[in-house]
Amino acid sequence: MKEKILSSLLTVLAFSALQAQNTAVPVAPRLVVGITIDQLRSDYLEAFISLYGDRGFKRLWKEGKVYSQVSYSFKQVDRASAQAAIYTGTVPFKNGIVATQWLDRETLRPVDCADDRDFIGYYTEECTSPKNLLVSTLTDELEIATRGASMVYAIAPHREMAVMSAGHAGDGAYWLNSETGEWAASSYYGDCPRWLERYNEGDGVPTRINALQWEPLLPMSSYDNPIREGAFNYGFVGNYRFRKLKASPCMNDEVNRMAAALLDATSLGEDEVTDFLSVTYNAGSYQSESWHESYLEMQDTYARLDRDVASLIDLIDKKVGLEHTLFVVTSTGYADCVPLDYTLYRVPAGEFYINRATALLNMYLMALYGEGQYVEGYHGLQIYLNRSLLEQKQLRLKDVLERSAEFLAELSGVQKVYTAHDFLLGGMSAEYELMRNSYNVHRSGDLLIEVNAGWKLMNTETRDVKLVYDGHVAFPLVFMGAGVSAGVVDTPVTTDHIAPTLALLMRIRAPSGSHAPPVPQLRR
Q1: What are phi and psi of 419, to 5 degrees?
Q2: Could you count the other beta carbons within 10 Å of the beta carbon of residue 451?
Q3: Is 489 strand, coil or helix?
Q4: pLDDT of residue 291
Q5: Helix, strand or coil for residue 151?
Q6: Which burial class, exposed, middle or buried, applies to 430 when counting CB atoms under 10 A from its CB (0-12, 13-18, 19+)?
């Protein structure tokens, strides 16, 4: 009898403990807010902390789980490939988004990653869809899990960033038209919503652009020893005024205005079904100036970013409640776009011309195999061979690639040449894997050139000048809400972990191409 009573008590205690444990498990959030900040970097965030209030970055660092050492697991990252990687949980090798643009083999013209002639645009002449995204996104999996009951919207300055985060199954993707200043959309996501029409026809960007000014947000005494004397004041006028706005931190205010209009017009986060809102901010250098030339502007950019993040958090709090919301904040990574001249400081460097390299390669192949146009085209540092001509001449692609790579490797400034054949056979080293991850068999060229660090990439046809800089610049990843514990984690992680982590917190399946586990120490 005593044994039965003891057994019953143990059963009750075990059941009670299990029940208490179940009630402690946090429920899925009603709203997930994904904030991607273009060009955000960890060291700038820390350096300018004295400029922040208490409800923006400081709040994220105090209440969220902060991963301070984040990077991408592929090379040649731009804003399109970055956003695609964040939302698919994988690399261009799988998701297909190798860059904002690549060369189309049929037309030999650059195509945009979001182009699709089958769908017209609203408030834009661009035809847009996510068809070039080859795997599912986190937002797609959310729609699948809820059988379409979730709402998914994306707002970004640039088209490709909005589309990559809204995914295939989203309800709307909105970006600013660089020519007209109106917020644009695509018929791929359905009819143009009436609230968007009212916004564009009312107090939209075009009605305010002439009055907009970018000047220091704080008193000059707040900034840390500006190198040049005096403040700054930028207006947005002329033919490229909307492009200038998009390159400035004032664009982040417009993103928040648009988010507020969207929240007023929809029922995002108002029921138990998880919804998703993606917003993109800008933290890049204005007018591509160097750090020393734009030191004051960069400080002000981060001060404004802090204010805009705080405003968005407060907006979501009033609309949904922070207890029902999960925030995730990260970056597209940092690329130094200022073409410094290292030779002025006796640092080994030089200039590499991709158009000249391709011309020399074609001459070399003609000397080997006879007359013909063996190089079809190039884009960035990728070279596309004329495969039809190789077939006509009964040449093995593998042999031509090897001879081409050997020739290009002898050119000044070339550090390494990778071939499509090598990528398809698999990787050999960590450095090799980074480059392989940036390749996609359907989009990339046959030859990928890696130029020495410190060299400038020159193109006499497009007049583009870019600096090759391989120095590691870390950026942060922050989760706040949904039972995530606070703390700072210095363990390095890659962006592949973001989508699986969010999937875990949202209680849905990770994207189809995702291969990484959730980030460590999430709830400790």
Answers
A1: -115, 155
A2: 23
A3: strand
A4: 61
A5: coil
A6: exposed
Q: Is the dihedral of CA 47, 50, 53, 54 positive or negative?
A: positive
Cβ atoms of 42 and 69 closer than 8 Å: yes
Determine contact, residues 49/174, Cβ cutoff 8 Å: no
Burial 128-152 (b: 16+ CB within 10 A, else e): bbbbbbbbbbbbbbbbbbbeeebbb
Task: Give, to the nearest 10 degrees, the angle between helix 354-369 and helix 397-409.
Answer: 130
d(CA 400, CA 364): 11
| Tokens coding 218 | 């704080």
| Residue 306: Cβ-neighbour burial (10 angstroms; 0-12, 13-18, 19+) | buried
Tokens of 438: 């940036």
Burial of 514 (0-12, 13-18, 19+ CB in 10 A): buried
- Tell me the sheet residues that pair with 102: 111
| CA pseudo-torsion sign 201, 206, 208, 214 | positive
Which amino acid makes up residue 272? E
From CA 407, how far away is CA 229, in angstroms rounded?
Answer: 51
Beta-strand (E) ranges in 271-373? 275-282, 325-331, 351-353
Phi, psi dihedrals of residue 394, rounded to the nearest 5°: 55, 45
Query: Are the C-beta atoms of residues 439 and 423 closer than 8 Å to each other?
Result: yes
How far is CA 1 from its chain centroid?
Answer: 67
What 3-state class would DSSP assign to 389?
helix
- Per the CB < 8 A criterion, the answer to whether 133 and 167 are in contact is yes
What pLDDT is stored for residue 9 in this prediction? 41
Distance CA 273, CA 271 (A): 6
Q: What angle do CA 209, 288, 78 make, to 5 degrees?
A: 95
pLDDT score of 19: 45
* Architecture of domain 345-467 in this structure: 2-Layer Sandwich (3.30)
Which of the residues in the chain have pLDDT under 70?
A: 1-26, 226-228, 287-293, 335-339, 426-428, 524
Q: Checking DSSP bridges between strand 213-214 and strand 101-103, what pairing results, if any?
A: unpaired
Sign of the four-CA dihedral 38, 41, 44, 45:
positive
Tell me the two tokens of residue 351: 């200039």
CB of 445 closer than 8 Å to CB of 383: yes
DSSP symbols for 50-87: GG--SSSHHHHHHHSEEEEEEE-SSSS--HHHHHHHHH
- Domain positions in the chain: 31-334+473-506, 345-467
Locus of tokens 């020495």: 452
Lookup: tokens for 485 = 């514990």
> Length of the chain, please?
524
DSSP 111-131: EETTB-TTS-EESSS--B-ST
Q: Quick one: 31-334+473-506 is in which CATH superfamily?
A: Alkaline Phosphatase, subunit A (3.40.720.10)
Distance CA 405, CA 121 (A): 42
The whole-angstrom separation of Cα 245 and Cα 72 is 28
CA-CA distance, 477 to 171, in Å (whole number)? 26
Q: What is the model's pLDDT at position 324?
A: 97
- Residue 73 tokens, joined: 């697991």
